TrEMBL record:
GO MF annotation: an example: DNA-binding transcription factor activity
SUPFAM superfamilies: PLP-dependent transferases, Winged helix' DNA-binding domain
Every HTH gntR-type domain range: 15-83
Name of this protein: PLP-dependent aminotransferase family protein
Length: 472
């Protein structure tokens, strides 16, 4: 049944028309003027009613779907999401129809997961291009023998990834230099096994702090791992890289987890170091898709004059970890050695899955999804900064890109994390990313805002504010 909703927009206000419209829908839902299952007006008549462009309304709908306020049903329209998803229990919904019955929620406080490294996946299943890609892939099953004929992965997917890299990162490559993996961890294992065959035991430098799973993957594949200090305002300290290492793994676009951006001078210095010491640079292009208000810097592989750079990427943070698909871009002799390693191990990604992903890239679905999620993540990032930056003694960093922020507060991080956990909110300790021990000044939390709705994020930020208020 259609619900009449009075909406007014102030064209003289400082906030944009899109922000005003989204805000009025949120208030209507939270104040229960719109309830779960209610349809919202279609974009075209609503745009005409308000005197705004249809694109403005469509952007608001996409944003509210991403935040968890609305759900989209292709061919039917947008509807208010179930309130238990927005923090209201099932029993609270039933109490509307049975007001005399006193009920106690089974889970009075939903667990809010603010651990970093996970994207928002709830809208992906409603993406018509995503569903179409899987339908087409299953309708025309590929020949099973192609797994053996193409050890580097589906040629169609490698062509699509090469085009994606050209458009998104300015990397000019060809399908023969693309190698399909089951994600970042397997990419590092393949690279280590390849370097082990060349050097006996590969010695590999990694950033500290850095991604613990990356260190584990390298060590599990037989590498000798050495850590190199990394600052919060830059990338890996080139002058401190041991001269004995055969390779360096770095995250220059958005250092994980401190968020530093490696400057162009430091990137060139790292490449000169690698050339001088005949070492390989493994560029983990983590988070390069999600930049918040800053221009991109060139990928290391576009700056290298030789064949010493391998670029690894994954669709886990862009689409969903359930996909478990990534790639390595490696040219020349290193690329040929990678093919040998892959041929000896065998394929790790379903060929059917590769065909579906290729279809999604070719249709423009991935580019559109990234654009939608970039807007949504920027909204959540702005919410986090707005709620926490003004608090006494609080520092918020690592927010120039990606799906997380680093939070330093007057309260010791383990104590704050424990109090949040008692309230049903999970965060990560910055100390867990250090291999050589946490510097005292870096005691903090790592807060992810990728996999949680803005409603739940706001609840968790409110908890942090309450805890810090009691410590003054």
């Amino acid at each position: 049944m259609k619900v009449e909703l009075a909406i007014t927009l102030d064209r003289d206000a400082e906030s944009s028309l899109q922000e005003q419209l989204a805000g009025q829908f949120r208030r209507a839902i939270l104040q229960k003027r719109l309830v779960p299952g209610d349809p919202v007006p279609a974009s075209r008549p609503l745009a005409q009613q308000l005197g705004v462009s249809r694109g403005t309304v469509v952007s608001v709908m996409e944003q509210l779907v991403g935040e968890g306020y609305l759900v989209a049903h292709p061919g039917k329209g947008h509807f208010v999401a179930a309130l238990d998803h927005l923090g209201q229990s099932k029993n609270e919904k039933e109490s509307r129809t049975s007001p005399a019955v006193l009920t106690v929620p089974e889970h009075p406080r939903p667990v809010l997961d603010l651990r970093p490294g996970y994207p928002w996946t709830q809208g992906l299943g409603q993406d018509p291009l995503w569903k179409s890609a899987w339908r087409k892939a299953t309708a025309d099953l590929p020949d099973a023998a192609l797994h053996e004929e193409e050890p580097s992965g589906s040629l169609r997917l490698r062509v699509a990834i090469a085009e994606h890299l050209r458009r998104a990162r300015g990397i000019i490559t060809h399908p023969g230099s693309i190698h399909i993996t089951s994600g970042t961890a397997e990419a590092l294992v393949l690279i280590t096994l390849t370097l082990n065959r060349i050097y006996g035991t590969a010695q590999i430098a990694v950033e500290d702090p850095g991604y613990p799973a990356a260190r584990q993957a390298l060590e599990g594949a037989g590498a000798r791992v050495q850590t190199v200090p990394t600052g919060s305002d830059a990338g890996i300290a080139v002058e401190k890289i041991p001269t004995s290492v055969h390779a360096v793994v770095t995250t220059p676009s958005h250092q994980y987890p401190l968020g530093g951006l490696m400057s162009i001078n430091d990137r060139l210095a790292l490449l000169r170091w690698a050339e001088r010491h005949e070492a390989v640079v493994v560029e983990d292009d983590y988070d390069s898709e999600f930049r918040h208000g800053r221009p991109p810097l060139p990928a290391l592989s576009t700056l290298s004059q030789g064949e010493r750079v391998m670029t690894i990427g994954s669709f886990s943070k862009v689409l969903t970890p359930a996909l478990r698909t990534g790639y390595i871009y490696a040219d020349g002799a290193l690329g040929r050695e990678l093919i040998r390693t892959r041929a000896g191990i065998g394929a790790s990604v379903s060929y059917l899955q590769q065909v579906a992903l290729a279809e999604y890239l070719e249709s423009g679905g991935l580019a559109r999804h990234i654009a939608r999620m970039r807007r949504e993540y920027r909204h959540r990032r702005d919410l986090l900064i707005r709620r926490l930056s003004g608090l006494a003694g609080v520092q918020v960093s690592a927010t120039s890109g990606g799906l997380h922020a680093v939070l330093h507060t007057p309260v010791q991080a383990p104590q704050l994390a424990a109090q949040l956990r008692a309230r049903g909110t999970e965060v990560a300790l910055l100390s867990s990313y250090y291999a050589e021990g946490l510097p005292q000044e870096e005691d903090g939390l790592v807060i992810g805002y990728g996999q949680t709705s803005s409603v739940h994020l706001s609840q968790a930020l409110g908890q942090i504010q309450e805890i810090l208020a009691t410590k003054r």
